[in-house]
Design a protein that fits this description.
There is one protein chain. Helix content is 22%, strand content 44%. By secondary structure, it is of the alpha+beta class. The protein is built from three helices and six strands. The mean pLDDT is 91. Strands 2-1-6-5-4-3 form a six-stranded mixed β-sheet.
Length: 131
Amino acid sequence: MTPLDVLELRRRHLIARDFDAFADLFAEDGVIELPFAVGGLPTRLEGREAIREFSLRTSDRPIDIIDLHTVQLHQTADPEVVILELTTEARHTTTGTPFEARCIQVFRIHNGKIKLFRDYVGAHTIPNLTN
């Protein structure tokens, strides 16, 4: 699988809220980094099972991802590294309010598995999840 194939699977799994399948896309030692994490979110998750546990534990958050729209895809000189400019189209399930969250995401994908997923999401683009 190419890195782009993996990213398309990731998109499908997140839309379907299939967090087990999402976690399975990561290498055993895969990492998620959220440098601008807010609202009690961790800035780093290490290992596929930690990613799975966190994804399943937070699956009841009141966000329904409708789609992930790639604004721009940047392939780098390193064939394992892909940078996305992305807009997440979503809905706050408690209020029904639609919203978009823009971000830059950096991936390192080796042998069809995500080794690193670094998400630079603008905290101001995500609605208050406590409502």
